[in-house]
């Protein structure tokens, strides 16, 4: 038996008046998902346990079968694993976004214009992080370049720091004053953020970006703190050899921590526009090479929601259907026994431009069975008629053992 999970980050949403009361998933043209839905189990799962933030770290941990109440240690440590950064047990890792803030003289009075600095290209962002490390890095703080706007800060021996930090994508187009670092050690983090804008404001990379019509990356924003993770291997847990196909360090690091083989795809960006078909082809290659389980992560719908773009969200869902699901259905007959699960990790409603804790719809297709009681369509509303998995970390067991 082969097992394939297609994780459509943030795809679930609320009904939208502009779409005649439909969700983007209901409205989008998805003939391939519709085809699978006619014979699949369709239901909902609560991937965010009560009391946990509705982040992709918690949600993907749940989807992979790990109880966040037991294994969650924060977002950034997983990204550190992906980046090959060795964390000591007493280190604190933090996500370091490059962001675009408005230009008021008083830092506290500024507005979060873009949590991704206009999806800054990686070559440009790495030069900026290098400058930050050169001037702010020391025996206590180390900055590491990542992909596009996503980077890393390691606070050495910082495990006991008390911080209250806010994800920048939660405050798009809002004044930042109420969301600046808090907690006993928040002033230290805020000091780094304020110093960064002095380094970045006249950097040649930013001057070049603005000259070409792009938003500048004029500050770092620190959040997502956590300590070194420790997960039992997916192979030991489920007796399956697996791979993870993704373009974001968070999911890649989670996969590596679980013992899954990380697979990169040329042109896969972790942004709205990515190599959809390349991810499907990479998944097929992994299955054909002997892997039992492949986890494919696609960030595009989530980024569309954070940017507040209904057009892009519908487009991304349709690309997933045609370029990912369609590519897989073209070869599905090569596998006499295969199960496919399609689901978001969490909703990212356009109305709030961030994540919510609502349960997500899932669809499970099994080549050996036709589930006549299927809801017949894959969307948030139809899924209410199917089974409900109240503990999201048990969904993987349900998928494998169904």
Description:
By secondary structure, the chain is an alpha/beta fold. It has two domains: 243 residues, Alkaline Phosphatase, subunit A; 143 residues, no CATH class. It contains 14 helices and 13 strands. The strands form two sheets. It has an eight-stranded mixed sheet, with helices on both faces. Strands 3, 4, 5, 6 and 7 form a five-stranded antiparallel sheet that branches. Strand 5 and strand 6 form a beta hairpin. Helix 5 packs across helix 10, helix 6 packs across helix 7 and helix 12 runs antiparallel to helix 13. The radius of gyration is 21 Å and the shape is globular. The chain starts with a strand and ends with a helix. The model has no long low-confidence stretch (mean pLDDT 97).
